[in-house]
Known about the structure:
Blueprint: E1 6-7, E2 27-31, H1 36-44, E3 48-49, E4 59-61, E5 65-69, H2 78-85, E6 90-93, H3 97-104, H4 118-129, E7 133-140, E8 143-153, E9 156-164, H5 169-183, E10 188-192, H6 196-200, E11 204-207, H7 208-216
Parallel strand pairs: 1-2, 9-10
Antiparallel strand pairs: 2-4, 3-4, 5-10, 5-11, 6-7, 7-8, 8-9
Helix pairs in contact: 3-4
Amino acid sequence: MTAVPFLPKATPEFPSTDLALTDPDGLLAMGGDLNLEWLTKAYSKGIFPWFNSDEHEILWWCPSERAVIYPGKMRIRKSLKKVIGGNRFFVSFDNAFDQVIDNCSMRNNESEETWITSRMKRAYKEMHSAGLAHSVEVRLDDVLVGGLYGVSLGKMFFGESMFSRVSDASKVALYYLQQKLFEWHFSLIDCQIMNPHLESLGAINISRTQFIEMVNQNPIDRTKSGNWSAKT
């Protein structure tokens, strides 16, 4: 792997995203810190952290292609439309952020941990306390069965992870998120890296150049901070 810049913890400063590696695609830098200040700066530049262990250095990424969903343009198949119309689930915002991220940190068998380490969880819970990270919760018979979380800055939502304990729960969470963001005139939902599940829901790839142009035009001063459950 080609050497990448090592970032000291003192000040959250990142290299230009144009300098991200092609192999591995999008790796921009390592080091720095994982806290409110660093994460806010990273997302404001279109950069996100992703690494495998609390024992490893933080890795910062900006891939050559970015998977995004434009609010209001999620692909809703007939089966999902039927689920949504059936009001089977109860959906809320910012009602159980800690539970959502804890669930996202486990795979579907609820025992094997994912890349969302304890360090990651602490950092995003700090973001949530500051009113910048948000969750969508999906409940069935008062039991949390699905949800997602991410970071909101300006008119962009930077999705981080989702989970489902029953069929369609995470899709329902995404549907209600993109509907709310459409009503609030958000420009896009950043899904980071494409996969078949996201593609089936209407995500498309845009180039890093196009994505960073949108990030640079994002009105950070219009961030909807605070608890979203009380916002209309």
